[in-house]
Structures are given as C-alpha cells and as structure tokens.
Amino acid sequence: MRQQVQQGGPSSDSCSSTSDCFPLSRRSSAECGSETSAAAEKHEVRATNTPADLSKMSSIIVFYLLYLLCLCLGLACVVCVCVWSDQWRGGFAWDGSILEFNWHPVLMVTGLVVVYGVGAVVYRIPLTWGQNKLPWKLLHAALMLIALILSIVGLCAVFDYHNVNKISNVYSLHSWIGITAAAVFALQWVCGAAGFLLPWSPTTLRKLLKPVHVWLGGIILLLSIAACISGINEKLFFALKGNTTETKYSNLPPEAVLGNSLGVLIVAFGLVVLKILSNHEWQRPDSRPEGLAYTPLLQDDNE
C-alpha cells in the first residue's frame, strides 16, 4: 500500500528523478522548471549566431573602409583638377577667354563625378539603417541637385567660350557623351524627385521606378567617367602640341603626368562607388524595425 502511494504521489507529476531536473538534462526548462537549463540554451543560441554576427560586422567594416577610400579619391580628384586648371592652364575667369573654359573641367569633375558619386552612396551608409528615410532621401536629392547645377554651369562655361571664339559646339565624341550624361542626369533627378519625394506619388509607381532609378544611376556615373576621361585626353592633345620637344604630349611632360593621374583617380573613384552600389549586403533594408515610431514630413514607404 505504501509502495503504491509512493509511486502515485504528487512528485511523479513533475520529474521522476533528480537527474531529470539537472541543468544538463535534455528536457527543456518548461518541463523541469530549471532556470539554469534555459540559460544554457540561450548560450547555445548565442554561440550559434556568432559567425553570422561576425560576418555582418566584417561586411560593415569593409563598407566604411571603401566609403573612406571613396571620399579620399573624390577629394584627390577635385584637388588635382583645380591644380591643373589654376597652375598649368592660367586660372579662372568668366570673360569668354580660355580662362573661362578652365571652369569646365573643374565643375564637370566635381559635380558630375565626385558629388554625384558621394550622393549615390550616401543612402547606403549602415548608420542610417532603421532610421527615418526622409532626411536621407532629402540629403541624397540635395547632393544630386548640387551635382546637376555644377554640371550645368560647367556646360555653360564651355558653350560660352566656344561661342565667343567662334568654335563649333558638340562636334567631338567627348561632347556627345558629356551632353548625354548631363541630359539623362537631369531627367533622372526630375523623375526621382517626383516619384520618391512627392506625397501623392503612388506606391506602385515607386516600386516600378526604383529598379530603373538604380540602374540609370550607375549608367550616368559610367557615362560621366567616360566623358571626363575623353575630355582630359582631348585637352592634353590640344594643349600639349608643343613647339619644343619638352612640351609635347608624347614626351609626357609634368602637365601630362598630372592629367593622366587625374584620369586614373577618376576611374578608381568610379570603381569604388560602383562596388558599393553593386553589393547587395549594403543595400538599405526595406522594412523598418518594429517599435520605431516617427511621423514623416511627406510620405515614407519601403522604396
């Protein structure tokens, strides 16, 4: 009788033995009520997620290294083209002379390549993920507008110089590529501002416009790089015809070294920007974290 009571007592409802409730038991904490078992399971989960966390952290570190390299290369491009125009080509003016033309390479490299490239990658910075998209959209749009204005002023400089000096416009491959890049860029900015910033733009339109907007962004950068490289080479051929052996382009005088170096810097800058834009791990997540509350000024969705 006592044996039956012992076997059928209340202790049988929880755990049959002390070994069943030991922290290293295979039973879950819900079955045995063990807090140490739950802690051990949490530790196992954390250990399992560690490689993924390390991979994500290393990816973010690589992004910031490339982003820093992008900024340094962009600054080097601007400094190089300014030194070339000021020290080797005589400086700047707006009087229809060759000094007015010097604004053209400076403004096109600065606007259509450097500011454009920085504006293209600013939306990918991991620090901005999980935050309100609107301020970063506005910063992206503002940088692109600055780049567009600089490129338009650069085009005005070369057209005005050509018109004053009775030189034909838009006859070279360089000018064809440059005009195409600027025109597509202007269209891209208008469509982007209308599609992504205006509050009455439908979500379906934004979803259709997004892949085209991203693709055209890369195309514009490639066209801009091609225009700048061909323009640098064209300018060096015109400027370094030379009556003496030391000033001929074929003998690679110091100005030619500087111009060629500028072309290399522009290509390197473009490659870094395209690398950042092409990496899917650095694309801004579409969804916002739960519990992040804010009131957008216009309209904010998952584009």
UniProtKB/TrEMBL annotation:
E.C. numbers: 7.2.1.3
Transmembrane regions listed in the UniProt entry: 61-86, 106-126, 138-161, 173-200, 212-232, 257-278
Top-level enzyme category: translocase
Signal peptide positions on this chain: none
MF term (GO), any: metal ion binding
Biased composition (Low complexity): 11-21
Subunit structure, as described in the record: Homodimer.
Function: Transmembrane reductase that uses ascorbate as an electron donor in the cytoplasm and transfers electrons across membranes to reduce iron cations Fe(3+) into Fe(2+) in the lumen of the late endosome and lysosome. Reduced iron can then be extruded from the late endosome and lysosome to the cytoplasm by divalent metal-specific transporters. It is therefore most probably involved in endosomal and lysosomal cellular iron homeostasis.
Descriptive protein name: Lysosomal membrane ascorbate-dependent ferrireductase CYB561A3
Organism: Channa striata (Snakehead murrel)
